[in-house]
Amino acid sequence: MSTDRDGKKLVRSPSGLRMLPENRALGSPFCLEEPQWIPDKEAILGGYLFMQCPRCMHCEAKFDFITRKHHCRRCGKCFCDKCCSKKVPLPRMCFVDPVRQCGECSVISQKEMEFYDRQLKVLMNGATFSITQGFSEKPETVMCRLSNNHRYLFLDGENHYEIEVARVSTVQILTEGFTPGGGNSRATGMLIQYKPQGSSELLQMKFTTSEDFTCNKKMAASWLAAMHKAAKFLYESRDQ
């Protein structure tokens, strides 16, 4: 059984202080690795001395003693202060404090903050669903939540299940109530496909909002919406 309590340590990198898991293999699947900085020093090539990054990679201002160069902590490219002045939180790289980012990256990071501030908390708080596995017609009511290290979906009911988030291949949100204009639909469940740890077999599990009167359907709908965003983050992480 996986552990939900993983130690962390403070690490100083060229980009700033980061809070990382002691075991890097147990890091959040939503996190991104620090990029390699584009070299900003002089180099000798073919007997000639040249500057590896002579101009801002956005406005093309030439670097000199007055126009200094800065690296974006998210993409690693070189920019002038004007094009890389914003310091924005970057939880996907586990930075403790806001870090310098270029204009394009800062917009992306600011959009991601809503996911880290709200959606992850919703997923970790959990919600109640009725699940069926494969082609089984026998449902089971479970409390589903995301582990504190974001690596597992814990399903607790009559039985205990653990699904490793990184091994989820598809997430399909099930909805009902479409109108001709495409609005007013609500999430009623989800269908996921995943590979169990140590297996290459693709399994399927269906989640539906439980009909149990004690279940909070609004909470379940919020959990499904958060899971949809988490899946998007997961697929983006695999591409980067």
TrEMBL record:
Residues 56-110 form the FYVE-type domain. PROSITE patterns: ZF_FYVE. Pfam families: FYVE, ZFYVE21_C. The keyword Metal-binding applies. Keywords: Metal-binding, Zinc, Zinc-finger. InterPro entries: FYVE-type_Zinc_Finger, ZFYVE21_C, ZFYVE21_C_sf, Znf_FYVE, Znf_FYVE-rel, Znf_FYVE_PHD, Znf_RING/FYVE/PHD. It comes from the Eukaryota. Gene3D superfamilies: Zinc finger FYVE domain-containing protein 21, C-terminal (2.30.29.160), Zinc/RING finger domain, C3HC4 (zinc finger) (3.30.40.10). SUPFAM superfamilies: FYVE/PHD zinc finger. This is FYVE-type domain-containing protein. The lineage of its organism: Eukaryota, Metazoa, Chordata, Craniata, Vertebrata.
